[in-house]
Design goal:
The structure holds two protein chains of two kinds. Chain A has strands at 4-7, 10-13, 19-25, 33-38, 45-49, 53-54, 62-67, 70-75, 85-90, 102-106. By secondary structure, chain A is an all-beta fold. Chain A has a six-stranded mixed beta sheet, with no helix packed on it. Chain A has a four-stranded antiparallel beta sheet with strand order 1-3-8-7, with no helix packed on it. Chain A starts with a strand and ends with a strand. Chain B is built from no helices and eleven strands. Chain B has strands at 3-7, 10-12, 18-25, 32-39, 45-51, 57-59, 67-72, 77-82, 91-99, 108-109, 113-117. Classes of the chains: A mainly beta, B mainly beta. The interface between A and B is medium-sized, with 23 and 22 residues.
Chain lengths: 107, 119
């Protein structure tokens, strides 16, 4: 199984800040890495797919990059609605594992 | 509007069984990889099972042999039959769609149905 490790576990930031969350895979996932945002009591929402493609309707302040084992999600100029938990997921091989999540909190 | 609606969750005793349903609207389940993803209380996401558009089924090791994914194309609905349930199966169970046949991305999710396994 491909294990995904996200860093940091939690992050405090202010509105307007730029933040980066990383996701490291235990073996290559090619470019088959997705990022999701989840708010309390809600289902996850797809932000980025294929490591760097922005899902339709997602603001352009979200971006992703990486290939193989190292990936990153960057949010430029944080908005109040961006404070949530973020997960990476690989769909390169079964089981389609998720990272443990990164909690983005308001400072 | 494309939509997924889960149902069938509830309280069940350890060793018991439950069947979850995921009804799809405005698209056909046979055109996508349909998956179940669960989230234990206060924990992260765990992919549980999936069915390709062509009917191939996939399972996480944690549920293999105890859970069965199936579908009814006439009802455009996907099911998750859960047997020999354990307390650690307690979670919110989400149904999710990944369109196409490769490079999967879970772009549509239901609101989830809660399964509690307890005596």
């Amino acid at each position: 199984d491909i294990q995904l490790t996200q860093s940091p576990f939690s992050l405090s930031a202010s509105v307007g800040d730029r933040v980066t969350i990383t996701c490291r895979a235990s073996q290559s996932s090619g470019s088959e890495l997705n990022w999701y945002q989840q708010k309390p009591g809600k289902a996850p929402k797809l932000l980025i797919y294929g490591a760097s493609s922005l899902q339709r309707g997602v603001p352009s302040r979200f971006s992703g990059n990486g290939f193989g084992t190292d990936f990153a999600l960057t949010i430029t100029s944080l908005h109040p609605e961006d404070f949530a938990t973020y997960y990476c997921q690989q769909t390169y091989s079964v089981p389609y594992t998720f990272g443990q999540g990164t909690i983005l909190e308001i400072k | 509007e494309e939509q997924l609606v889960e149902s069938g969750g509830g309280l069940v005793q350890p060793g018991g069984s439950l069947i979850l349903s995921c009804a799809a609207s405005a698209f056909t389940v046979s055109s996508s990889l349909m998956s179940w993803v669960r989230q234990a209380p206060g924990k992260g996401l765990e992919w549980v099972s999936g069915m390709h558009g062509g009917g191939i089924t996939l399972y996480a090791d944690s549920v293999k042999g105890r859970f069965t994914i199936s579908r009814d194309l006439s009802k455009n609905t996907v099911f998750l039959q859960m047997y020999s349930l354990r307390p650690d199966d307690t979670a919110m169970y989400y149904c999710a769609r990944a369109p196409g046949q490769a490079r999967f991305r879970f772009d549509l999710w239901g609101r989830g149905t809660l399964v509690s396994v307890s005596s």
